[in-house]
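Possible regression after last week's pipeline update?

I re-ran a chain I had predicted before the update to compare outputs. Posting the input and the new output here so someone can diff against the archived version. Not blocking, just want to make sure nothing changed silently.
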Amino acid sequence: MLRLVALLISIILQLIAAIFALRLMRVTKYRASWVLISLGFLLMAIKRSIKLIQFLQDDFSFYLTMADDWLGVAISFLFTAGVFLIGEIFYALKRAEIERSRSEKRLLNAIIQTEEKERKRFAKDLHDGLGPLLSTVKMSISALINMVTEKTSSDILKNANMVNDEAITSIKEISNNLSPHVLTNFGFVSALKNFTHKINQAKSIQINIESNIENERFDHNTEIILYRATCELINNTLKHAKANTVTIKISKHLRTLTIQYHDNGIGFSPENKIEEQYIGMGLSNISSRIKSINGVFILNSFPHEGLSALIKVRLN
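New output (post-update):
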């Protein structure tokens, strides 16, 4: 009785396996490996059915025994061939994953390049459009200052001239921040030093940069992404960390460029949802951009222990 139950259970399970395998053939696009394995499951159910017939009828005739034996041979062949060919499915999945990753990188690079083009266009429009207009205003005000003799009117014009000078300076700074000419002409480290020099002049925080590459140039896309990522880390420190010191170490060894970033601010807990609202998106953007140039971005921070970040990029 127990053998009958075991035979019935095995037949039912093998039929279920065969049905699911046959249904998955469409998903696998009827690849030969999966078709062979599906047929193997089906033949296994038939083989067990022959065993059931032999058990119920107590018939162990030559033909049934031979059919059972040859079904075993056929099943072994189908499974062997199927397993041998199934690597094709895994290779196809791997190729699809690689192509998906490449497509994501191409898309992100296209977005970054478009963004940089728009930054350059906007910076050029500011510099070439508003700049000359404000310079013309400055010339007119300067001419009026020389013509006006009344002290009150002269003071008003001098004040207007000073405000105009500040506007011209602001436009130059905004234009340079949008598309730093130093980055294009002299490279990542020089542009970063130029960016931090302006911050250090305010005396509210000291940013120290140590580097062994100085004027060495890299792929333009890599320089842009590293510059934007490091500036984003600095901006997060300025906005949220309440730090007074930032240390940035930039080093190149063989074909690997490493950026170590550390501030002595209040830090944060990665699990803190409030902090995620403020800096989570910025850090996520840094991570995705660094990945697009085959790099890694690692962040460590704990409350009252500051923030440390590591960027490593494999250079072409």
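Follow-up from reviewer: compared with the archived run. Strands lie at 206-211, 245-253, 256-263, 295-301, 307-314. Marking as no regression found.
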